Every structure is written in C-alpha cells, then in structure tokens.
Amino acid sequence: MGDEYEDEVIEQSINPMPKSIATAINEIMLKLQKPLEHDAENKFQKYKYTSIDGFLKQVHPACAEAGLIIVPHEQSSEISPSGKNLTVVYQYILVHKEGDTWDFPTTKHIVVPFGNGTAMGTAQSYALKQFMRSLFQLSTGEQDDLDALDQPKKKKKSEDLL
Predict the structure, then answer these.
(1) Cβ contact 19:95 at 8 Å
(2) Range in 42-51, 78-87, 119-128, 139-148 the model is least confident about
(3) Which is it for strands 47-49 and 68-79: parallel, antiparallel or unpaired?
(4) CATH code at position 52
(5) Residue 97 carries which DSSP code?
(6) Which domain holds residue 101?
(7) Does 107 fall in a domain?
(8) Are 15 and 102 in contact (CB under 8 A)?
C-alpha cells in the first residue's frame, strides 16, 4: 500500500526575492560593514555586547534609509510542562517601502526562561536581533560561538604529536 508514493517527488518552490528588497538588504550590508558598537556589559561573565536597544539604534536607520520594513509575526508560543521555559516561533516578512513583499518563510525559534512578565518581550527582542544579524550578516564581536566558550583543555600526549 505504501509503495504507490515511493517515486513521488515533492517540490517546493521559492518565489524570487523582489529586486527592491534584495537591493535594500545589500545597501544595509554595505552600510553596516563595521562591527556594531557594544553598549552593555555582562559583569558576571565579563564581556561587552550590543543590547537590543543599541542594536536597533544602529540598524534601524540603515533599514529606514534603504526602505526595508521587517514585519514580525508570532506563529506560536508555548510554556514548557515544567513552567520554566517559553518557546516562541516568529516569522519575519520583508516588505519594501514601495510595497514589494517577499513571502519566503523566514522563521526563528527562541527558548527563554519563563517566570515573569518580561519573558515574551525577551523572546521577541532576541529573535528580532538574531534574525537581523543573520539577514544582514552583521558582526557584533559577541561571544556567542563555540570558539569563544570555555572549553576543557586536554594535555597532549607525546604520541598525539607524532
């Protein structure tokens, strides 16, 4: 019974990005080539970073000048069974000031600690920051990649060096 679908190929098509949106993204990438300025500090882990407000303060003018509008849409939100985490899925729609829209389904899944009224705002801010950082390929110099994390150091044995 299941063999009838064996050779079926499912194709997914992506509508081309409108030229106005591609041009706007390119303009923003060219304008924001330098690492974004750090405006906050994590005193516990001893590093500086770009807060969401600092991020928007630097990125928003470039988006406005290029005519790019980013519309967030909350697809779903769920509190974990333990009540400790909130998971939110956002979809972002790119619109140009001239009215062109790109309907490519760009989503971000965010999990944040849940326990007070700020969890939803935290999820929204972090998701937007990560979406724009990825879309415009922005450098922030933040310690959020594996190479920047403390890794246990192994002592090399002499036979490992041969």
Answers:
(1) no
(2) 139-148
(3) unpaired
(4) 3.30.390
(5) T
(6) 15-139
(7) yes
(8) yes
CB atoms within 10 A of CB 23: 15
In a domain, 154, yes or no: no
> Which amino acid appears at position 18 of this protein?
P
Between CA 127 and CA 82 the distance in angstroms is: 22
Is there a domain that residue 148 lies in? Answer: no
* Degrees to nearest 5, angle at CA 31 with 26 and 37: 130
What's the gap between Cα 2 and its chain centre? Answer: 39
DSSP state for residue 18 in the 8-state scheme: P
Contacting residues for 52 by C-beta, under 8 A, at least 6 apart: 125, 126, 128, 129
Distances (CA, A) of 115 to 7, 86, 123, 137, 160: 49, 9, 13, 32, 48
Domain count, the chain: 1
Q: Which residues pair with 79 in a beta bridge?
A: 86
Region of 22 (left: φ > 0; alpha: ψ -120 to 50; beta: rest) is alpha
- pLDDT tens, residue by residue, 67-79: 999 999 999 999 9
Residues in a beta bridge with 78? 87
State which amino acid sits at residue 35: P
Rg of the Cα atoms in the chain? 21
pLDDT at 104 over 60: yes
In a domain, 153, yes or no: no
